[in-house]
Amino acid sequence: MSESQQLLRQWKLLQLLADSRFGIPLAELATEFDVSDRSIRRDIAVLQTAGFEIQEVIGDRGLKRWKMKPFSEQTGFTVTELLSVYMAQRFLEPLAGTPFWTGLHRVLGKIRGALGDQAIRYLHKLSGSLHATSVGASDYSKRGELIDSLMLAIEDHLITLITYQSDQSTEPVEQEVYPQGFVFHRGSLYLIAWSSRRAEIRTFKMDRIDDVHVTKIPAAVPQDFDLKNWLEHSFGVFRSGNMILHTIRVRFSRESARYVRESNWHKSQTLSPQNDGSLIAEFQLTDTQEIKRWIMSFGPSAIVLAPVELAEEICNDLTRMLDAYAKSPA
Protein backbone atom coordinates (compact mmCIF):
# COMPACT_ATOMS: atom_id res chain seq x y z
CA MET A 1 0.00 0.00 0.00
CA SER A 2 1.33 3.47 -0.88
CA GLU A 3 2.15 6.04 1.80
CA SER A 4 -0.61 8.33 0.53
CA GLN A 5 -3.20 5.54 0.98
CA GLN A 6 -1.97 4.92 4.52
CA LEU A 7 -2.13 8.63 5.30
CA LEU A 8 -5.68 8.80 3.98
CA ARG A 9 -6.72 5.82 6.13
CA GLN A 10 -5.04 7.32 9.19
CA TRP A 11 -6.78 10.65 8.52
CA LYS A 12 -10.18 8.93 8.35
CA LEU A 13 -9.31 6.95 11.49
CA LEU A 14 -8.44 10.20 13.24
CA GLN A 15 -11.82 11.66 12.25
CA LEU A 16 -13.73 8.59 13.47
CA LEU A 17 -11.98 8.56 16.85
CA ALA A 18 -12.36 12.32 17.26
CA ASP A 19 -16.10 12.16 16.51
CA SER A 20 -16.78 9.15 18.72
CA ARG A 21 -17.99 10.00 22.22
CA PHE A 22 -17.50 6.57 23.81
CA GLY A 23 -14.74 5.09 21.64
CA ILE A 24 -14.71 2.35 18.98
CA PRO A 25 -13.72 -1.34 19.34
CA LEU A 26 -10.66 -2.47 17.40
CA ALA A 27 -12.62 -5.07 15.42
CA GLU A 28 -15.14 -2.43 14.32
CA LEU A 29 -12.33 -0.18 13.09
CA ALA A 30 -10.73 -3.07 11.18
CA THR A 31 -14.07 -3.85 9.53
CA GLU A 32 -14.65 -0.19 8.66
CA PHE A 33 -11.36 0.02 6.75
CA ASP A 34 -11.29 -3.62 5.56
CA VAL A 35 -7.84 -4.27 7.05
CA SER A 36 -6.44 -6.48 9.79
CA ASP A 37 -6.43 -5.66 13.50
CA ARG A 38 -2.64 -5.41 13.25
CA SER A 39 -2.89 -2.68 10.57
CA ILE A 40 -5.24 -0.62 12.75
CA ARG A 41 -2.90 -0.99 15.74
CA ARG A 42 0.00 0.22 13.56
CA ASP A 43 -2.05 3.23 12.42
CA ILE A 44 -2.97 4.08 16.01
CA ALA A 45 0.69 3.78 17.04
CA VAL A 46 1.66 6.22 14.25
CA LEU A 47 -0.97 8.72 15.42
CA GLN A 48 0.10 8.34 19.06
CA THR A 49 3.74 8.93 18.08
CA ALA A 50 2.60 12.06 16.21
CA GLY A 51 1.25 13.38 19.50
CA PHE A 52 -2.49 12.63 19.27
CA GLU A 53 -3.92 11.51 22.61
CA ILE A 54 -5.40 8.12 21.71
CA GLN A 55 -5.81 5.42 24.32
CA GLU A 56 -7.53 2.09 24.86
CA VAL A 57 -10.28 2.19 27.49
CA ILE A 58 -12.38 -0.54 29.07
CA GLY A 59 -16.12 0.00 28.87
CA ASP A 60 -19.21 -1.96 29.89
CA ARG A 61 -18.78 -5.74 30.24
CA GLY A 62 -15.04 -5.33 29.80
CA LEU A 63 -15.31 -4.28 26.15
CA LYS A 64 -12.15 -2.52 25.05
CA ARG A 65 -12.50 0.58 22.89
CA TRP A 66 -10.09 3.03 21.34
CA LYS A 67 -10.83 6.62 22.24
CA MET A 68 -9.19 9.98 21.62
CA LYS A 69 -9.26 13.08 23.78
CA PRO A 70 -11.55 15.57 21.99
CA PHE A 71 -9.68 18.12 19.91
CA SER A 72 -12.00 20.81 21.19
CA GLU A 73 -10.52 20.30 24.67
CA GLN A 74 -6.97 20.53 23.37
CA THR A 75 -7.25 23.38 20.88
CA GLY A 76 -10.84 24.64 20.68
CA PHE A 77 -11.07 23.09 17.17
CA THR A 78 -12.48 19.80 15.91
CA VAL A 79 -10.03 17.65 13.95
CA THR A 80 -11.65 18.65 10.62
CA GLU A 81 -11.57 22.35 11.54
CA LEU A 82 -7.94 21.99 12.58
CA LEU A 83 -6.83 20.53 9.27
CA SER A 84 -8.90 23.15 7.41
CA VAL A 85 -7.10 25.95 9.27
CA TYR A 86 -3.74 24.34 8.59
CA MET A 87 -4.49 23.91 4.89
CA ALA A 88 -5.74 27.50 4.66
CA GLN A 89 -2.16 28.75 4.77
CA ARG A 90 -1.60 27.31 1.29
CA PHE A 91 -4.33 29.54 -0.11
CA LEU A 92 -3.07 32.60 1.79
CA GLU A 93 0.55 32.26 0.69
CA PRO A 94 0.13 35.07 -1.90
CA LEU A 95 -0.62 37.35 1.08
CA ALA A 96 2.61 36.49 2.94
CA GLY A 97 3.84 39.49 4.89
CA THR A 98 0.38 41.00 5.25
CA PRO A 99 -1.74 41.22 8.44
CA PHE A 100 -3.96 38.42 7.07
CA TRP A 101 -0.98 36.05 6.85
CA THR A 102 0.39 37.13 10.23
CA GLY A 103 -2.96 36.52 11.88
CA LEU A 104 -3.20 33.00 10.46
CA HIS A 105 0.29 32.15 11.70
CA ARG A 106 -0.62 33.32 15.19
CA VAL A 107 -3.54 30.88 15.14
CA LEU A 108 -1.26 28.09 13.90
CA GLY A 109 1.22 28.97 16.64
CA LYS A 110 -1.46 28.43 19.28
CA ILE A 111 -2.43 25.10 17.69
CA ARG A 112 1.23 24.04 17.58
CA GLY A 113 1.59 24.91 21.26
CA ALA A 114 -1.41 22.75 22.15
CA LEU A 115 -0.53 19.71 19.99
CA GLY A 116 3.24 19.83 19.72
CA ASP A 117 5.60 19.78 16.73
CA GLN A 118 5.15 16.06 15.98
CA ALA A 119 1.40 16.42 15.48
CA ILE A 120 1.94 19.49 13.31
CA ARG A 121 4.44 17.57 11.16
CA TYR A 122 1.82 14.86 10.70
CA LEU A 123 -0.77 17.46 9.68
CA HIS A 124 1.77 18.83 7.22
CA LYS A 125 2.05 15.38 5.61
CA LEU A 126 -1.74 15.18 5.39
CA SER A 127 -2.02 18.64 3.85
CA GLY A 128 0.46 17.60 1.16
CA SER A 129 -2.45 16.07 -0.73
CA LEU A 130 -3.69 19.59 -1.53
CA HIS A 131 -1.72 22.08 -3.60
CA ALA A 132 -2.69 25.63 -4.51
CA THR A 133 -1.10 27.10 -7.63
CA SER A 134 0.38 30.58 -7.54
CA VAL A 135 0.51 31.40 -11.25
CA GLY A 136 0.18 35.16 -11.63
CA ALA A 137 -0.01 35.73 -7.85
CA SER A 138 1.39 39.01 -6.50
CA ASP A 139 4.11 39.22 -3.84
CA TYR A 140 3.09 41.28 -0.81
CA SER A 141 5.92 40.23 1.51
CA LYS A 142 7.29 43.82 1.53
CA ARG A 143 3.94 45.61 1.70
CA GLY A 144 2.69 44.40 5.06
CA GLU A 145 3.05 47.81 6.74
CA LEU A 146 1.23 49.58 3.90
CA ILE A 147 -1.66 47.11 4.05
CA ASP A 148 -1.77 47.37 7.85
CA SER A 149 -2.02 51.18 7.60
CA LEU A 150 -4.84 50.95 5.05
CA MET A 151 -6.73 48.49 7.25
CA LEU A 152 -6.50 51.02 10.08
CA ALA A 153 -7.82 53.75 7.77
CA ILE A 154 -10.73 51.50 6.72
CA GLU A 155 -11.63 50.63 10.30
CA ASP A 156 -11.40 54.20 11.62
CA HIS A 157 -12.79 55.93 8.46
CA LEU A 158 -9.78 58.23 8.02
CA ILE A 159 -8.67 60.30 5.04
CA THR A 160 -5.54 58.73 3.57
CA LEU A 161 -2.84 59.89 1.16
CA ILE A 162 -1.49 57.21 -1.16
CA THR A 163 1.28 57.40 -3.72
CA TYR A 164 -0.06 55.50 -6.70
CA GLN A 165 1.11 54.81 -10.22
CA SER A 166 -1.65 53.59 -12.53
CA ASP A 167 -0.90 51.54 -15.64
CA GLN A 168 -1.40 54.69 -17.75
CA SER A 169 0.86 56.97 -15.66
CA THR A 170 4.57 57.46 -16.21
CA GLU A 171 5.19 58.69 -12.65
CA PRO A 172 3.63 57.95 -9.23
CA VAL A 173 1.05 60.52 -8.08
CA GLU A 174 -0.06 61.32 -4.54
CA GLN A 175 -3.83 61.04 -4.14
CA GLU A 176 -6.32 61.65 -1.36
CA VAL A 177 -8.62 58.68 -0.83
CA TYR A 178 -11.22 57.39 1.63
CA PRO A 179 -10.45 53.62 1.91
CA GLN A 180 -13.56 51.41 1.92
CA GLY A 181 -12.21 47.84 1.81
CA PHE A 182 -10.01 45.21 0.18
CA VAL A 183 -10.82 42.66 -2.52
CA PHE A 184 -8.56 39.66 -3.19
CA HIS A 185 -9.03 38.65 -6.83
CA ARG A 186 -7.02 36.20 -8.94
CA GLY A 187 -3.93 36.32 -6.76
CA SER A 188 -3.86 40.11 -6.30
CA LEU A 189 -5.13 42.49 -3.63
CA TYR A 190 -7.13 45.59 -4.56
CA LEU A 191 -8.08 48.61 -2.47
CA ILE A 192 -11.57 50.00 -3.07
CA ALA A 193 -11.63 53.68 -2.08
CA TRP A 194 -13.36 56.99 -2.73
CA SER A 195 -11.06 59.15 -4.83
CA SER A 196 -11.20 62.87 -4.06
CA ARG A 197 -9.45 63.50 -7.37
CA ARG A 198 -12.12 61.68 -9.43
CA ALA A 199 -15.04 62.24 -7.02
CA GLU A 200 -16.06 58.57 -7.27
CA ILE A 201 -15.28 55.11 -5.95
CA ARG A 202 -12.15 53.73 -7.63
CA THR A 203 -10.14 50.50 -7.63
CA PHE A 204 -6.42 50.64 -6.76
CA LYS A 205 -4.17 47.62 -7.23
CA MET A 206 -2.06 47.14 -4.10
CA ASP A 207 1.07 46.37 -6.16
CA ARG A 208 1.02 49.96 -7.48
CA ILE A 209 0.72 51.72 -4.11
CA ASP A 210 4.22 52.89 -3.14
CA ASP A 211 3.42 54.82 0.04
CA VAL A 212 0.56 55.30 2.51
CA HIS A 213 -0.01 58.13 4.98
CA VAL A 214 -3.08 57.88 7.19
CA THR A 215 -4.24 61.25 8.50
CA LYS A 216 -6.26 61.87 11.65
CA ILE A 217 -9.01 63.57 9.67
CA PRO A 218 -12.33 61.68 9.54
CA ALA A 219 -13.36 60.74 6.02
CA ALA A 220 -16.76 61.60 4.62
CA VAL A 221 -17.51 57.94 4.02
CA PRO A 222 -20.52 57.42 1.74
CA GLN A 223 -23.23 56.39 4.18
CA ASP A 224 -24.92 54.00 1.79
CA PHE A 225 -21.75 52.37 0.42
CA ASP A 226 -21.62 48.57 0.56
CA LEU A 227 -18.57 46.83 -0.92
CA LYS A 228 -20.42 43.65 -1.89
CA ASN A 229 -23.27 45.56 -3.54
CA TRP A 230 -20.83 47.82 -5.36
CA LEU A 231 -19.13 44.79 -6.96
CA GLU A 232 -22.40 42.98 -7.70
CA HIS A 233 -22.48 43.94 -11.40
CA SER A 234 -18.71 43.73 -11.91
CA PHE A 235 -17.02 40.76 -13.56
CA GLY A 236 -14.12 41.07 -11.12
CA VAL A 237 -12.91 44.12 -9.19
CA PHE A 238 -13.28 46.96 -11.68
CA ARG A 239 -16.48 48.88 -12.21
CA SER A 240 -17.16 52.11 -14.05
CA GLY A 241 -19.27 54.85 -12.53
CA ASN A 242 -21.92 54.05 -15.11
CA MET A 243 -24.89 52.28 -13.51
CA ILE A 244 -26.45 51.19 -16.82
CA LEU A 245 -26.56 47.40 -17.14
CA HIS A 246 -25.35 45.85 -20.40
CA THR A 247 -26.55 42.45 -21.58
CA ILE A 248 -23.53 40.46 -22.77
CA ARG A 249 -24.27 37.33 -24.82
CA VAL A 250 -21.49 34.93 -25.80
CA ARG A 251 -21.62 31.70 -27.79
CA PHE A 252 -19.10 29.06 -26.64
CA SER A 253 -18.19 26.19 -28.94
CA ARG A 254 -18.90 22.59 -28.06
CA GLU A 255 -15.24 22.15 -26.98
CA SER A 256 -15.50 24.94 -24.37
CA ALA A 257 -19.15 24.53 -23.32
CA ARG A 258 -18.52 22.01 -20.56
CA TYR A 259 -15.73 24.08 -19.02
CA VAL A 260 -18.00 27.15 -18.89
CA ARG A 261 -20.88 25.17 -17.38
CA GLU A 262 -18.67 23.84 -14.58
CA SER A 263 -18.18 27.20 -12.88
CA ASN A 264 -20.22 30.08 -11.55
CA TRP A 265 -18.70 33.06 -13.34
CA HIS A 266 -21.14 35.72 -12.20
CA LYS A 267 -24.31 36.03 -10.16
CA SER A 268 -26.30 37.19 -13.21
CA GLN A 269 -25.21 34.40 -15.56
CA THR A 270 -27.72 32.42 -17.61
CA LEU A 271 -26.38 29.41 -19.49
CA SER A 272 -28.40 28.00 -22.40
CA PRO A 273 -27.19 24.74 -24.02
CA GLN A 274 -27.77 24.55 -27.79
CA ASN A 275 -28.73 21.57 -29.95
CA ASP A 276 -25.32 21.52 -31.64
CA GLY A 277 -23.51 21.18 -28.28
CA SER A 278 -22.53 24.83 -28.05
CA LEU A 279 -23.56 27.09 -25.18
CA ILE A 280 -24.89 30.64 -25.04
CA ALA A 281 -23.95 32.51 -21.86
CA GLU A 282 -25.64 35.75 -20.86
CA PHE A 283 -24.49 38.26 -18.23
CA GLN A 284 -25.78 41.58 -16.86
CA LEU A 285 -22.80 43.91 -16.21
CA THR A 286 -22.10 47.64 -15.94
CA ASP A 287 -18.61 47.34 -17.48
CA THR A 288 -17.23 45.14 -20.26
CA GLN A 289 -13.45 45.50 -19.83
CA GLU A 290 -12.84 42.51 -17.57
CA ILE A 291 -15.25 40.16 -19.30
CA LYS A 292 -13.66 41.13 -22.62
CA ARG A 293 -10.31 39.74 -21.48
CA TRP A 294 -12.05 36.59 -20.22
CA ILE A 295 -13.85 36.07 -23.53
CA MET A 296 -10.64 36.58 -25.52
CA SER A 297 -8.87 33.94 -23.40
CA PHE A 298 -11.05 31.32 -25.14
CA GLY A 299 -9.71 32.29 -28.56
CA PRO A 300 -11.96 31.21 -31.45
CA SER A 301 -14.09 29.09 -29.07
CA ALA A 302 -16.00 32.17 -27.87
CA ILE A 303 -17.93 34.59 -30.08
CA VAL A 304 -19.70 37.72 -28.76
CA LEU A 305 -23.30 37.94 -29.94
CA ALA A 306 -24.16 41.14 -28.09
CA PRO A 307 -23.58 43.98 -27.67
CA VAL A 308 -22.27 44.79 -31.13
CA GLU A 309 -19.88 47.38 -29.66
CA LEU A 310 -18.11 44.72 -27.61
CA ALA A 311 -17.78 42.41 -30.62
CA GLU A 312 -16.28 45.26 -32.67
CA GLU A 313 -13.89 46.14 -29.86
CA ILE A 314 -12.59 42.56 -29.75
CA CYS A 315 -12.22 42.54 -33.54
CA ASN A 316 -10.14 45.72 -33.34
CA ASP A 317 -7.95 44.23 -30.60
CA LEU A 318 -7.37 41.10 -32.69
CA THR A 319 -6.48 43.21 -35.72
CA ARG A 320 -3.92 45.15 -33.69
CA MET A 321 -2.55 41.86 -32.37
CA LEU A 322 -2.12 40.50 -35.91
CA ASP A 323 -0.40 43.71 -36.97
CA ALA A 324 1.97 43.47 -34.02
CA TYR A 325 2.91 39.91 -34.95
CA ALA A 326 3.34 40.87 -38.60
CA LYS A 327 5.82 43.59 -37.61
CA SER A 328 7.68 41.35 -35.16
CA PRO A 329 11.26 40.47 -36.26
CA ALA A 330 10.64 36.90 -35.16
Architecture overview:
The protein has about 325 residues and is of the alpha+beta class. The chain folds into 4 domains: about 5-70, Arc Repressor Mutant, subunit A; about 80-125, no CATH class; about 145-225, SH3 type barrels, CATH 2.30.30; about 245-325, Alpha-Beta Plaits (2-Layer Sandwich), CATH 3.30.70. The chain has helices at about 5-20, 25-35, 35-50, 70-75, 80-90, 100-115, 115-125, 145-155, 225-230, 255-260, 290-295, 310-325; strands at about 55-60, 65-70, 160-165, 175-185, 190-195, 200-205, 210-220, 245-250, 270-275, 280-285, 300-305. The strands form 3 sheets. A 5-stranded antiparallel β-sheet has the order 6-5-4-3-7. A 4-stranded antiparallel β-sheet has the order 9-10-8-11. Helix 5 runs antiparallel to helix 6. The longest helix has 20 residues, at about 310-325. The radius of gyration is 27 Å and the shape is extended. The relative contact order is 0.07. The mean pLDDT is about 85.
